[in-house]
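Q: What does the predicted 3D structure of Acylamino-acid-releasing enzyme look like?
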Amino acid sequence: RVLQVQPRAEELSELYRELSQHPGLSTACLGPDLTTQYGGKYCSLYTEWSQRDLARAENIKFCRQYLIFHDGASIVYSGPAGTCSEIKGELLSRESPSGTLKAVLRKVPGKEKEKEKQFLEVWDQNRKVKSIDLTALEKHGSVYDDDQFGCLAWSHSETHLLYVAEKKRPKAESFFQSKAPELGTSDEDTGHPKKEDAAVKVGSPHPGSGGGWLGGNGADQAVPQGEQFVYHEDWGETLTTCSVPVLCVLDIEGNSISVLEGIPEHLSPGQAFWSPEDTGVVFVGWWHEPFRLGLRHCTNRRSALFYVDLTGGRCELLSEDTKAVWSPRLSPDGCRIVYLENNVLGPHQQCSRLCMYDWYTKHTSTVLEAVPRQAQGAFPGIYCGALPGMCWAADSRRILLDTAQRSQQDVFVVDTATGATTSLTADTPQGSWSVLTIDRDLLVARFSTPSCPPMLKVAVLPAAGHEAQAQWICLQDAPPVPGISWGIRTLQPPPEQEHPQYAGLDFDAILMRPSEGPTAQKPPLVVMPHGGPHSVFTAGWMLYPAALCRVGFAVLLVNYRGSLGFGQDSVASLPGNVGTQDVRDVQLCVERVLQEETLDASRVALVGGSHGGFLSCHLIGQFPDTYRACVVRNPVVNIASMVAATDIPDWCLTETGLPYTPEALPDPAQWTEMLHKSPMRYVDRVRAPVLLMLGEDDRRVPPKQGLEYYRALKARGVPTRLLWYPGNNHALAGVEAEADGFMNMALWLLKHLQC
């Protein structure tokens, strides 16, 4: 059903409620192979999904299991096993290598005035066998459950668990703290156990030798005075509780916890796993001197791969120490580690290299280089935030990954010995594919399109050389949302807008439009440039565009030059040209679509967040006659005023085309250049009504950016409204903020486009 003209708020909310109920698929895990009495093989598939619960104003997680019968070469039968079940309190979970045990990090509300607690649990196939109150032990701070540092890794022997937590910080006292008088009693006198006796013991042998852990016992330290208000750096947007991560180990059999020592003090460790033979731990270490910069979505921070030996305490560098590395994955035979690598600084997202470290020869090789430009039908390059948690084929030679390929996302298999790549999704319909896991060559993936919510797909990885013959089977279908049609178009800038160094670059846009209803013949147009700027719209399910299309708008998603998936040359073409090249690309796309499609050129609006908000504010100032309304979420409006307040000051200089060094201060000419490239330069020309949505806790684009624009517009008499969302950061992804944001956005567009 497409909404009629002038829909009531009740109809909009009902539409949003309907579309927001489509769940997202986040995790998949394959159980061990079992044999039937007739000799057939089958395994269980455990999946986790997330869904918005508007009544509870929260995202809920639920699990669903499936059975897969296969003969090793093909899937014979697959289907669901039981119904969905909500998951409560789980922060991390991980199956053991054999599949017989499962570790769970769980948060539990504290009683009365107690703070929330964290428990580390171990389950076997029948019951919970361990439950350890990590909060009560006070060996470290909160365990990291993010995907930047966090991990929960089983040792190969399945006797130890490795995780990352915040370093224990001594409780500071005032210089004037009153001390309780000594009463002359001891723990023995009162009969209470000592704190260290009440907790599990610390310091047990590691799983590979008879030696001891390199770990402190977490003993109470002297309480420092005058340090109550010392500033502690953090890792920025979404990582504000992460400051000094430490590697921690639970000895399951010995009931002991150790905090590993031997990590150099200038490094913050994360993404850790056990080395072959459990002799030590491999981890990524990020440099945090001279100060921490924001890390979320920043794959250009100096980091390297390290190994810490648990017997001698030696910390060894495994990769170059002048690059940015992340996402290390150990092969099933324990011989090789693949990881992703970028250059330090420069664009936050780039075309990445795939590197491999041989554990026994100590040799490092580059499997895949960055791709300057994609040749017709060739591999596009790697543009992904991380490799799948399990990405190796059973032969320990091939790996699976997904990556943007222009405006799609596809799955590729990479031969690490030869660097050969093969698409596993080339013959499938256009859309967005993501690898969830591969185990024993059973491959699990997610697929969606702009008109179809995520569905679950499975396949058997064919033998080497025959990968293109992969047969995908849909295990959990999601029927297409009616009333939406879409397509991808490619645009070439005119000669006068070509980049002098990177000529010949083109770009894409995804056009969604209503296929039924009163506006289907000539709908108004909503233009949405993406943020980043080095990110990309892929042809997958997106709630806001789908909902706007169902309201009756055509939606244009623009992947301007500088987007990922089009080669490193495209990425490199944008720094120094923000506010001109990207703006002109979007405007060219809008003008071309209005010429070639039956759209209402008198009713065009902009919606954008972050750098998409930057472009939207530029466009309503540079091309005021084109746009009738604008909605921006946490927009960059003044790079010069943002540089001193953001968690990514390097972004401000890099995208302006200026060099960044931690010690450098912008000179007057550089301040001028940053302001010159900002939307604030064109604020006097803005006529379109503007709705601003700001997250109070945004560390990336601080809300003062939006306030600055709000005041400038108000002073010039431009109709302006500002929505302020407490408890929300840059993404404005809280369920309540996201729902309220859609309602206000839709009503603003309907009002000012006079629909």
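A (community wiki): The structure tokens above were generated from the sequence. Residues 335 and 360 are 7 Å apart (CA to CA). Residues 484-651+687-753 form a domain with the Rossmann fold fold (CATH 3.40.50.1820).
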